[in-house]
Write a structure and sequence with these properties.
The chain is an alpha/beta fold. About 60% of the residues lie in helices and about 10% in strands. The protein is built from six helices and seven strands, in the order βαβαβααααββββ. Helix 1 links the parallel strand 1 and strand 2.
Length: about 260
């Protein structure tokens, strides 16, 4: 069952008193299903009417409220269908206008996005080229600074100084060797000249030097003439190799 209907035709108050009982009122209040009352006439009221979910003035009224008129329902359904159809048409029209507006907006938006995309590509290209140029410029500056730093680096300076010292040492060695060679050549020349003028060279050719010690001194006197010696003088004869101690046996003048 979908509901409970309590109905009773018209009558006296005593006839309707059963619907005023407490147990009936409590049973209606505890009922899980809806309760509809149609007790007596329109002017009759009972406690059950106040406890019910719906009160009809009469049993006939209760039946009419429980089971509505079919024609009236069909009219209501037709009116509702027409109202719903009109609402749907209006909604579709609004949606169509909104769709057209959105399509126009999307078309404009697409054109705007295309323009923005072109501008973005141009900006990206310019930015990339600018960054590339800036990086190249900074790289060139960095290389120049690195070269300057390398030239001014103590290690580089020391290397240059070491190379300079090595070069100067080589020049000094060559100069010293050249000077020594020149001096040796000059020395050999002067030695040869001195040797040619040396008495020893003369002695080596078979000549001799005669000398005697001067009386009272420790010096020797070279004898050039026979008149410079006397008989029994002691003389020293220097030869090319060695010397002779001689005694004058006789003195002969130049003839």
């Amino acid at each position: 069952a979908d509901m409970i209907v309590l109905c009773r035709g018209g009558g006296s108050i005593e006839d309707l008193w059963a619907f005023n009982e407490e147990c009936v009122a409590r049973a209606i209040a505890r009922s899980a299903m809806p309760v509809v009352t149609g007790i007596g006439h329109e002017i009759d009221f009972t406690i059950a009417d106040f406890c019910a979910d719906l009160r009809a003035p009469t049993p006939t009224g209760a039946a009419e409220q429980i089971i509505p008129d079919t024609l009236h329902l069909r009219r209501q359904i037709a009116d509702r269908e027409k109202h719903v159809e009109q609402a749907i048409f209006r909604k579709l029209a609004r949606d169509q206008r909104a769709l057209n507006q959105n399509l126009r907006f999307l078309g404009d938006l697409k054109e705007t996005l295309d323009n923005l995309s072109l501008r973005l590509d141009l900006c990206v290209h310019r930015f990339s080229r600018s960054v590339h140029d800036a990086l190249q410029h900074k790289e060139q500056q960095l290389r120049r600074l690195a070269d300057r730093l390398e030239r001014r680096s103590p290690v580089h300076v020391l290397e240059l100084k070491a190379m300079r010292i090595e070069y100067l040492q080589e020049r000094l060695v060559r100069k010293i060797l050249s000077t020594i060679s020149n001096k040796e050549a000059a020395l050999a020349k002067w030695a040869a000249l001195l040797d040619s003028m040396s008495p020893l060279a003369t002695l080596a050719r078979g000549y001799a030097i005669v000398r005697k010690i001067t009386t009272g001194t420790a010096s020797w006197t070279v004898i050039r003439r026979s008149s410079e010696v006397a008989q029994d003088d002691h003389l020293e004869v220097l030869l090319g190799e060695g010397s002779l101690d001689c005694k004058v046996l006789a003195v002969r003048e130049k003839e």
